[in-house]
Amino acid sequence: MSELRTLRNYVNGEFVDAADGRTLDVIDPTTGEVYATSPLSGPADVDAAMASAAVAFPLWRDSTPSVRQKLLLKIADAVEARADEIVDTECRNTGKPRSLTLSEEIGPMVDQIRFFAGAARLLEGKAAGEYMDGMTSIVRREPVGVCAQVAPWNYPMMMAVWKFAPAIAAGNAVVLKPSDTTPASTLLLAEIIGGVLKELELPAGVFNVICGDRETGRLMVEHRTPAMASITGSVRAGIQVAESASKDVKRVHLELGGKAPVVVFEDADIAEAVEGISVAGFFNAGQDCTAATRVLVHESIHDDFVTALAKAAADTKTGGVDEEDVLYGPLNNANQLKQVAGFIERLPAHAKVEAGGHRVGEVGYFYAPTVVSGLNQDDEIIQNEVFGPVITVQKFTDEDQAVDYANGVEFALASSVWTKDHARAMRMSRRLDFGCVWINTHIPLVAEMPHGGFKKSGYGKDLSSYGFEDYTRVKHVMTAI
Ligand SMILES: NC(=O)c1ccc[n+]([C@@H]2O[C@H](COP(=O)([O-])OP(=O)(O)OC[C@H]3O[C@@H](n4cnc5c(N)ncnc54)[C@H](O)[C@@H]3O)[C@@H](O)[C@H]2O)c1
Ligand SMILES: C[N+](C)(C)CC=O
């Protein structure tokens, strides 16, 4: 067995252990074996990281947009240059297929960092002017302060980018906590970002990473230093973060769970829909807040659709990091495997498992591509986030019922409509109560467009100029003239 790696926090430009030496095991989900340890950070570590960010913040706040852009562009170049190493690290820690991680994550991440590098120089505000006789008003857009940022395990490195890039572009300093199950790639990003900060002689404390669990996250959010708390994670965690932040009225940015409806009308191109939906439902083992997880199909094509989707599931391959033609790897951790299996074990008698419905192998946390039909709107598996390679299929009779079913959950992050009827697609995009509506596609994202939900999926946007503005505050300056 190879030697255990020791991961360390990254604070003020240095890798350091937790002050009291406590650690957590880091597990390779492909094998279920411990391959590293990471710090279980406590109050002293949170204090140190916050102090580092607090010192850096005024210096970074006063930097010009041009300097912020230069930093981010250099980080993007460095990430691109070390892509293979980053992918190796991410794949060891998540079990994702190597080739897909390279093509579907590194490219977009680099592009997203470059997008925010550009955004740093394009902040918009209202025109300065005389809105009252004898007075001139100006709007200043300023960074918010130190940001406490908490990331999930499903896209560890990409979610880190979505957090630090807009925050740093806007002039904030960051303390970021990766999930306890996936700290490795975020710490490699810290090494890269720290190297660029050093090269440009910029304050080391602009970017800090501390590892730990929920309690570490709570300590960060409740710490007196940050002015803003941002989390990507479950609804439960989001509610707790909002509660913690409310104690001293910190700004909160919440990207939480999803339960995306996928509405397929009778005039859709069925073959195209089945292919797009199966990839968007099973990609990353369905551990995606926008996954195409909850299919609603018009009754006239329901049976044919289910047969085709079950075949697509049977043709979908899960397997190891370097296996060929694999769409997805293991679930992220033993708890997640238990959670996904639990939903299938508890299915009501009226449900029918059309494909999969079982674990694959006994080593690691692999689960088969699964399709379940015959479900009712109030079934547990329809109302709750499975976050696994499971697609459910329900029948609808008309547009109104499709809208009722689609909107009839507590989540409201993403949705899609499959139809050739343009007017219907436009009607549906107005009526669907989700932060994103895709038409005849599902899952693509671009840096320029906002990502974020409504209802229990949270508030605040990632990516885009909206996401950038969330990391700024607006000040009115009025002067007598
Ligand atoms: N909306 C999005 O953009 C998006 C993206 C990815 C994942 N998610 C959601 O995240 C969930 C899966 O991720 P997860 O299991 O890591 O979520 P999780 O809620 O268990 O944890 C997310 C992060 O929050 C931390 N955390 C948990 N409780 C906390 C608390 N009380 N205070 C501070 N930090 C706390 C965790 O340590 C982890 O780093 C799914 O529900 C998924 O839909 C949403
Ligand atoms: C944000 N996204 C869609 C990349 C992953 C959500 O889980």
TrEMBL record:
Keyword NAD: yes
Pfam families noted in UniProt: Aldedh
InterPro entries linked to this entry: Ald_DH/histidinol_DH, Ald_DH_C, Ald_DH_CS_CYS, Ald_DH_CS_GLU, Ald_DH_N, Aldehyde_DH_dom, Aminobutyraldehyde_DH
Protein name, per record: Betaine-aldehyde dehydrogenase
Domain Aldehyde dehydrogenase as annotated: residue spans: 15-477
Record carries keyword Signal: no
Similarity section: Belongs to the aldehyde dehydrogenase family.
GO MF annotations, alphabetized: betaine-aldehyde dehydrogenase (NAD+) activity
Keywords: NAD, Oxidoreductase
Catalytic residue list: E255
SUPFAM superfamilies xrefs: ALDH-like
EC number assigned by the record: 1.2.1.8
